Amino acid sequence: MEFLSTTLARVKPSPTIAVTTKAAELKAAGRDIIGLGAGEPDFDTPQNIKDAAVAAITAGKTKYTAVDGIPELKQAICDKLHRDNGLSYTPSQVSVGTGGKQILYNALMATLNEGDEVVIPAPYWVSYPDMVLLAGGEPVIAEASLQTGFKLTADQLEAVITDKTKWLIFNSPSNPTGAGYTWDELKALTDVLMRHPHVWVMTDDMYEHLVYDDFKFCTPAQVEPRLYERTLTVNGVSKAYAMTGWRIGYAAGPEQLIGAMRKVQSQSTSNPCSVSQWAAVEALNGTQDFIAPNNEMFARRRDLVVKMLNEAEGIRCPVPDGAFYVYPSIAGLIGKTSAAGTLIDTDEAFATALLEETGVAVVFGAAFGLSPNFRVSYATSDAALTEACSRIQTFCAKLT
Fold first, then answer.
1. Distance between CA 73 and CA 89 in Å, rounded?
2. How far is CA 316 from CA 147, 254, 329, in A?
3. Which three-class secondary structure string do you get for 202-253?
4. The whole model's pTM is what?
5. CATH number reported for the structural domain that contains residue 265 in this entry
6. What pLDDT does 18 receive?
7. Where does the record place the Aminotransferase class I/classII large domain (predicted)?
8. Sheet bearing 200-204, strands edge to edge
9. Which domain holds residue 26?
């Protein structure tokens, strides 16, 4: 009898965590490493949010809470969704979990049966397919290309939906590309979903507030109100509020689904950290004044990275609409050999050689379902980004 679960054999460890861990190990060993793999802002959590956490500790708010969130946080989430997205929910339609990842996982565990299909546009966040597999479903990858701005078209979505399709996982702005869907682009997708009433949509809106230039964020249930009863709108405080370590994600949707997710959470982690919940109340209800200046800094870093990468031989880097990632193509480098003799036959080989020969850590595109590309997180200092991009330029120039 096998000791380990056969389900576990269907999944792989997170490649982004692996890259970050490898970079940290090399740095600890004395190497000059610039890590561009981490998906978190380098800003500190705003002071008013930290003060709210301290006040919660001082007031003794350190006990168990309701399984899926305190009433005050659920109400703050309802207020946020109404204020920012024009969506009306009651606290009974809200679930709070230990990060957005748990929320997504709970929803998949609560709804998927063997053979159920989940449509996932690629490039995708690395965890989507593996969470579907863990929950017993089958990921169906719909590949978007550089030519469509890394965005799924209505025709592509129509082509992959079957009678087994249960969910579409939708992420805008995207991790890893930063691509954002306009209202009209999203309306084209929701029109397809309206023709297939058995398909639900799980929206990952984690980068909602991190948008640049004239891009306007919108979410599916906002664009097509008739999808409200089969939409799970997922968000969290990690990115815009620089609260990655606080681990608070949330979702709003139909009460039956929220209740099923609550049941899953009650038998796994139970409630999220009580102190983090009170901090999240302040994040959502308190001042939002820091978001705009933070975005200005991100936009400047984005422009710096895009310019320098497009100056590197064989790299083509589009300009993203949001998040804090770029997803350049290295199609022009495939088949070349590095200065140390490594054949660049895949984007994983490129990322490995880049780390070993220059000390720059990026995540290879195959981890996100679309090659040959790599992901750069520009959530770090201008100086680090400039030095990293300079090393990438030199690395590419030496390929033969």
1. 13
2. 12, 42, 5
3. EEECCCCCCECCCCCCCCHHHHCHHHHHHEEEEEECCCCCCCHHHCCEEEEC
4. 0.95
5. 3.40.640.10
6. 78
7. 32-392
8. 94-97, 249-252, 231-236, 200-204, 165-171, 117-122, 138-143
9. 7-44+290-397
